[in-house]
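Teaching note: in complex prediction, the entire set of molecules is handled at once rather than each chain in isolation. The prompt given to students was simply: 'Predict the structure of this complex.' The entities are:
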Amino acid sequence: MRRVAITGFGAVSAFGLGVPAFWEGLAAGRSGIRTITICQTKGLVSPIAAEVPDFDPRQFVTEEQSLILDRFSEFALVAAAEATASAGLELTDEERTRAGVAIGTGMGGAARQDESYYQVYVKNQPRIHPFTIPRSMYNAAAAQVSMAHGLQGPTICVSTACSSATHAIGEAAEMIRAGRADVMLAGGADAPLAFGVLRAWEAMRVLAPAVNGDPSRACRPFSRDRQGLVLGEGAGVLVLEDWDRAVRRGAAIHAELAGYGATADAGHITAPGVDAPARAIGTALAQAGLMPDQIQYVNAHGTATRLNDSTETTILKRVFGDHARRLAVSSTKSMHGHAMGASGGLELIATVLAITRGVVPPTANYTEPDPECDLDYVPNQAREMRVDAAISNSFAFGGLNAVLLVRRP
Amino acid sequence: MADMDRLERQVIDIIAQKKRLPPENIALDSSFLDLGIDSLDGMDLLFAFEDTFNISIPDDVAQQMKSVRQVTEGLRQVLGERAVAAN
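The expected output is the structure of the full assembly:
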């Protein structure tokens, strides 16, 4: 069976552009969550998010190109460009036919649709922009990345809510293992910050408010006083490559993507299960040929809702037994927010960097232990430690679970 | 049912309609758990209460609403605050 190397990555996040800024923020335990500036927020209970600051697409694309690009596609393009550059990826025409793209998204061009509905229903405009559909369709980001890099192999979009990027990366790795592609640009992108979308999330009563006017303290995963999630946006894209190809061309291999598990709760549309997520972790371990006690770090789904964090703790204890207490577990969502379909991409990058840098990013805003969450969540401060193998969890609404396992090359 | 007030009857009617239960099966002390109302159903009910009474139920009040009696108490609190604000 072919093996999968991770040879590059790119990030657009609440810390701005690029993996260096992203990692610097995480390693410092700093939250990128702030008051929303890019859309109307009047009347919202919690007008905060992990918004990408000062994003100017014109730095990257022409005015003509930007007409057909939604914000989530722009994020994906910027992250993909960084990923391919950092991987030193140069492909021949022939190789491009065996290189593809898998970009997940939870809501695609939701903000663009929101704006269009406003024009149609409120402004009674007889026509809206003809690019509305090609801009906002969910597969736009994957298609734009394939066009930008001339990649003509298997190219897909996965939409599994909060697990979108994790599924996209896992399925991309399977394509390489199966010999259907040699290189895949894989990850996720989302830009869900629009008034209508925020109202819809608010109605579910899962959004955390700022603390005494301070948005950066809103998201407190695994802490007893946690009050819910904070929406975010951005993109995380990785270069996955057939192992032998990466070795042959002398690429720097950051980590091996050694395991992937995907399962469904087949239970409740929003409440998380235990058995199926545990089975997804088990599948990833089995594919990698690792025992549970060979994992040192877990990048948790860790949304900071009451139910997710206690359930995820139960899942980890179920899979890892006594070793669960020796795991370093952190939720980086405390800092980069819940970037929806981009989360899994950003979180896998954080997980790989934990291996390569020997530093585990913390769970920020951890203020108070919860008896229902009694593991080591790396509170507030990054920890220097050797990580040889780690997993990244994504447990989406819909009960759709995806787990990726990476290990030191 | 005789000693219930108007608000309590309204709340029971809304729950009965939403959950397709006979109103007589819903008592003041029925918990959401007893009635098979999970967290998502609970949000749907909150939405219905907000719509019916034209109010906004804050999260901290909503979190205390896990039985019919708690719902009526929470609604009285929010409706009471509105009445005070109107004066």
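Point out the following to students. The two ends of chain A are 16 Å apart (CA to CA). DSSP finds 14 helices and 15 strands in chain A.
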